[in-house]
Design brief:
Layout lengths: L6 E6 L22 E4 L2 E5 L4 E7 L5 E7 L6 E7 L2 E5 L6 E5 L5 E5 L8 E8 L5
Parallel strand pairs: 1-3
Antiparallel strand pairs: 1-10, 2-4, 4-9, 5-6, 5-10, 6-7, 8-9
Length: about 130
């Protein structure tokens, strides 16, 4: 069974050696999460763009994206149900997401900032959200 702990994004300042990132330890062990996220780890320079992808098991209808920065609880940027966006959290316009007909989803972040360094998680559900 795959181990899926989300996508770790670290944004670095320019081309220098100063790197802002941390290690996320997945304490849940090996589980079948029902989704595959890619890439697992990503380091990008400030100002660049990133696309995080989430592929589900068949039959899932709902997808939610979460962002968790170091020392903070998870934030809720986007939720979709059957290809329609149902909710959007309070995130800058640089963040966007979409869900495709085959239930795959992408989270896009343009013009990366240092504050975008975080763990990004995709969650799936068979049922309609409340």
């Amino acid at each position: 069974m795959p181990l899926n702990c989300g996508s770790q994004l670290a944004v670095r300042e320019g081309s220098g050696s100063r790197l802002f990132c941390w290690v996320i330890v997945c304490l849940l062990g090996v589980v079948d999460s029902g989704v595959t996220q890619t890439p697992r780890y990503l380091i990008k320079a400030r100002g660049h763009r990133v696309i995080l992808r989430c592929s589900p098991m068949s039959g899932h209808h709902s997808v939610s994206w979460y962002q968790q920065t170091l020392g903070q609880g998870p934030q809720f940027p986007f939720e979709f149900y059957e290809n329609m966006r149902r909710a959007k959290g309070h995130f800058p316009g640089r963040f966007s997401a979409q869900q495709f007909r085959d239930a795959r989803s992408e989270l896009n972040v343009s013009s990366l900032e240092l504050s975008d360094s975080a763990l990004h998680l995709c969650a799936r559900s068979f049922s309609q959200p409340c």
